[in-house]
Design brief:
By secondary structure, this protein is mainly β. The chain has one helix spanning 121-127, and strands at residues 3-6, 9-12, 15-18, 32-38, 43-49, 54-60, 63-68, 73-78, 83-87, 92-97, 102-108, 117-118.
Length: 128
């Protein structure tokens, strides 16, 4: 099951800083990092992974994340850099971008492998 995580935000008069790493609360060795940007109302994700865990971090704007384990759907809202959503393997995820220019950083415990992706919801349901 996915889990919401919180990271320490260092806020000062001239901005803020939030660090992500094993010592800062990321529960795995980071093997891949990428960013995703989308216009307001756009849907991204729409897949699950067989082996890869992902930590989703919204660093700008607001993003709604829907997670599905094959039986139950849960919704989360990410709206600042101090919170993240840990999504383990075999959880179907879709992200809806609620603000213009919302930006998400994704940390993964595996390198990119095309064969790890489950892109069909029907195939996902068969697997779980």
């Amino acid at each position: 099951m996915e889990k919401k995580l919180f990271f320490k935000r260092h806020i000062s008069s001239n901005g803020s800083l939030c660090a992500y790493g094993e010592k800062e609360g990321v529960p795995f060795n980071i093997r891949r990092v990428f960013t995703v940007w989308a216009k307001r109302g756009e849907i991204r994700g729409m897949h699950a992974h067989k082996k890869c865990s992902q930590l989703l971090l919204c660093v700008h704007g607001k993003i709604s994340v829907e997670c599905d384990d094959g039986e139950t759907r849960r919704r989360y809202v990410l709206n600042h850099e101090g919170q993240g959503l840990l999504i383990p393997p075999k959880i179907w995820s879709r992200q809806k971008y609620l603000d213009s220019k919302a930006v998400m950083i994704v940390l993964c415990d595996k390198k990119y492998e095309r064969s790890d992706y489950i892109r069909s919801y029907k195939a996902f349901k068969k697997l779980v």
